[in-house]
Amino acid sequence: MKANVVLDAKGLACPMPIVKTKKAMNNLEAGQVIEVLVTDKGSKADMKAWAESTGHQYLGTIEEGGVFKHYLRKSSKDETIEKKHPNVINNEDLEKILGSANDNIILLDVRESAEYAFNHIPQAISIPLDELDERLSELNSEDEIYVICRTGSRSDFAAQKLAEQGFKKVMNVIPGMSKWTGNTIGLNK
User: Fold this and answer.
1) What Cα–Cα distance (Å) separates residue 134 from each residue in 59, 63, 73, 137, 154?
2) Interatomic CA distance for residues 145 and 89, integer angstroms
3) Which among 1, 16, 174, 183 is positioned nearest to 95, based on CA atoms?
4) φ, ψ for residue 70 (rounded to 5)?
5) pTM (2 decimals)?
6) What angle do CA 15, 51, 127 make, to 5 degrees?
7) DSSP for 15-48, written as a single string
8) Would you name the residues annotated as active-site residues?
9) Contact 147, 136 (CB under 8 A)
10) Is the distance from CB of 147 to CB of 173 less than 8 angstroms?
């Protein structure tokens, strides 16, 4: 596949491949295609979700030797308006809520399974972002759902997706696990 621009984001973790892609997209003309090279496994779901949230076209991903080649087409200004989930909560407020023992609260961790396995909040359930569509039935749309990832980017995409599917009480946790100071469990404990 021929791309107008190739962006090397290998070795970078979320949210940096998206940050670099966003910056590179600003220099493209509408209709041009960018190939983004990434080694972060979570980038497949991230790139697709970011493209959908901005109006750019996600063309697909090819994996070759541990490198994900993401192809995106820049849309025109009329098509691109980056959306953000409007309801956010910070780590400290989430920690207080989790301590209140409310049965209708769900903490949804949308990081990759390996990230979750090594370190997560005890109450969190794991549904990686790229599995969310297939696993929506595991969630109750009436519950309060707090979505967390490493930095707030993937969780923002997941929160938008849940809201689009009729979930009314969805909050994006920022800055997420990268700055979480509360209790955690996992393989590295």
Assistant:
1) 20, 22, 26, 8, 17
2) 11
3) 183
4) -95, 135
5) 0.72
6) 60
7) THHHHHHHHHHHTSPTT-EEEEEE--TTHHHHHH
8) 14
9) no
10) yes
**Beta bridge partner(s), residue 58:** 72
Q: How far apart are CA 52 and CA 48, in angstroms?
A: 6
Residue tagged 């979570």 (tokens): 42
Tell me whether strands 67-73 and 33-38 are parallel, antiparallel or unpaired.
antiparallel
Residue for token digits 């009329």?
Answer: 78
Residues in the chain: 189
* Positive/negative CA dihedral, 124, 129, 131, 136: positive
pLDDT (tens digit per residue) in 103-151: 789 999 999 887 899 899 999 999 999 899 999 999 999 999 999 998 8
Cis amide bond preceding 122, omega within 30: no
